[in-house]
Amino acid sequence: MLQQLEIETPVTLLAGARQIVAASNTRLKTALAYKTARAWFQRELAIGSATRDGGMPERPGRPERLQLLAPRDMPKRRLGGDQGRIALIHSLAHIELNAVDLTWDLVGRFAGTPLPRSYYDDWVRVGLEEAKHFSMLEDRLALLGASYGDLPAHDGLWQAAQETGHDLAARLAIIPLVLEARGLDITPPMIAKAREMGDEETAKCLEIIYRDEKNHVAFGAKWFRFLCDRTGKRPEPAFQEYVRRHFKGPLKPPFNDRARSEAGLTPGFYKPLASIKG
After folding, report:
1. For the chain, how many helices (H) and strands (E)?
2. Could you give the number of structural domains in the chain?
3. Which of 79, 82, 190, 213 counts the highest number of beta carbons within 10 A?
4. 185 near 270, Cβ under 8 Å?
5. How far apart are CA 214 and CA 54, in angstroms?
6. Is residue 88 part of a domain?
7. For residues 184 and 259, what is the distance between their CA atoms, to the nearest angstrom?
8. Which residue segment(s) compose the domain that 56 sits in?
9. How far apart are CA 41 and CA 39, in angstroms?
10. What is the pLDDT of residues 120-156, one digit of tens each?
């Protein structure tokens, strides 16, 4: 039982990030995220280096029984009833588990880039919150008599990490400013739908995720602008170029313009991309 397992504090932040992404047991993955974040904020960890601590895994650890499919091969989600609710929560849990790995990869993969300590403070906080989100949804599945891995999940989200592993600005453009920003668009209707189905507990989980996602997008916008300032690039056209290069297809409306703008992602960033064809 993981509750009885004594998890050692990682030797560096990079080592912790690597262990989190590599872990295949989801309870261990989230426990490592909590342990690493706590040690970082207590100022017990140095950042570390890939030469000494090793590089980041090319793929994240996943439970052995989880069936990963190409997005086009995913079965249609069941609607209504407990099975429909489980299918929805399972798909959300899969998104949040990918968010855990994408965030900690963002912490570890670019550890050799000269960055302020506050960069790591921000993204370690995000990594901790993503672990919290996954744990909430995993617990919600358990209350419904299910568990993560019961249903197949698509294998498309990690492609964004592989596509942008060479360039921090590209990673920030695609992960927080495209993928997380999409969460700001679709989560409010999902909250309303959960309440319509009488599922107040899932609605409360989604409200927490939505609140946190605003900060995650804000951190993305903050550090993307930081890198653009460092290299003399204008943020909006730079963002659009990264998306054209690394993201397949258009950015799909409707957009939650208010929430995006509150997070620093104003319409000038994404509206010109809405008509791009794949």
Report:
1. 12, 2
2. 1
3. 213
4. no
5. 32
6. yes
7. 7
8. 2-273
9. 6
10. 999 999 999 999 999 999 999 999 999 999 988 887 7
